[in-house]
Design goal:
The chain has one domain. Helices cover 84% and strands 0% of the residues.
Length: 126
């Protein structure tokens, strides 16, 4: 896959995910919906955030920082966008349950940081 086709596909899919999330946001009533409504809300938001963050992260790395390999920049941006989207989604879930405290958020950030460091070290030492 070329860089141009990757970017085009990511832009189209991110816009499609944002459109799905917007539709779900305005049509599902959180007071009367069941578990499927919440799963659709959080899943569409997760995919939207991860796609948009991957594009922004790639552009910052490739254009702003002038890193050499586009494949490595895209791979790192995609991995970190998943972790960022997971941070946002879990934070929203904690907030909806009334469990959003500084201790929980710090444990979540530390856990995701440890996971990122593990993935970086695993990538360098196959």
């Amino acid at each position: 896959m070329t860089l141009k086709s990757y970017l085009i596909i990511m832009i189209i899919m991110s816009l499609l995910c944002w459109a799905c999330w917007t539709y779900i946001f305005f049509t599902i009533d959180p007071e009367t919906t069941n578990t499927i409504g919440f799963v659709l809300f959080y899943l569409s938001l997760f995919l939207s955030l991860s796609g948009s963050a991957a594009l922004v992260g790639f552009l910052i790395r490739f254009v702003g920082l002038r890193q050499a390999l586009a494949f490595r920049s895209a791979k790192e941006a995609f991995r970190q966008s998943f972790l960022f989207a997971a941070l946002v989604i879990v934070s929203l879930m904690l907030l909806s349950r009334g469990l959003f405290t500084w201790l929980n958020v710090m444990l979540l950030v530390v856990g995701l940081s440890v996971l990122e460091f593990f993935l970086i070290s695993y990538e360098r030492n196959p």
